[in-house]
Amino acid sequence: MLARYSDARLPTAHGEFRVVVYRTGEQAGLGATAVGLGAEEHVALVMGDVKGPGVLARVHSSCFTGEVLGSLRCDCRAQLEAALARIAREGRGVLVYLVQEGRGIGLGNKVRAYQLQDEGRDTVEANLDLGFDADLRSYEIAAGILGDLGVSSIRLMTNNPAKQSGLVHAGVTIDALEAHWVGASEHNAEYLEAKRVKLGHLP
Asked: Is 130 part of a structural domain of the chain?
């Protein structure tokens, strides 16, 4: 179950967005006490009128270490900021923010994977060593959010073909892919190379 729960104006460094919170799970449509009873919360940041086709969009998975703690091991925070800046320049678009930490393995396991990477494994090998697939994310919730917002087709900001195919499988119409590289650093170069070589991310 997916339900729109709250909606408000959100001024940001990139301009004014609407923040729309969605809840999933059996308790999705209930009141504030429902959090912690099986509900998850996901977010859409919306600028302009996004009803109709050709909407610039980013489907972004949560990264507590990068976006909150400022970790330089990944490019997640830079990708988030770049997507919001691109939407603001265009004046119309949506960023769907999904709670899917560590490509779906969760924060604790993501930090365990970091330890394995410090011992010489790459980001894909670390997930596999922990008993997970390389990428456990799904995109049905993103498709539901886009549909609720009235988006009929998107121009997707991504370098990840698996995200494209996952969204198409979930029913999203993609008009075009918009490359979304933000540059490498000494701390994340090997991580980005592993995504290109082992996960097929586009150059």
From this structure: no
135 is catalytic: yes
Which of residues 23 and 181 earns the better pLDDT score?
23
Options 103, 121, 122, 135, the catalytic residue: 135
Measured between alpha carbons, how far is 94 from 87 in angstroms, rounded to an integer?
A: 7
In a domain? residue 123: no
Do the Cβ atoms of 80 and 60 come closer than 8 Å?
A: yes
Q: Is 129 a catalytic residue?
A: no
Q: One of 58, 137, 148, 175 is an active-site residue; which one?
A: 137
Q: What is the pLDDT of residues 2-54, one digit of tens each?
A: 999 999 999 999 999 999 999 997 555 555 555 555 679 999 999 999 999 99
Range of the domain at 191: 2-100+137-199
The CATH number that applies at residue 185 is 3.40.50.10990
CA separation, residue 20 to residues 8, 42, 190 (Å): 7, 8, 35
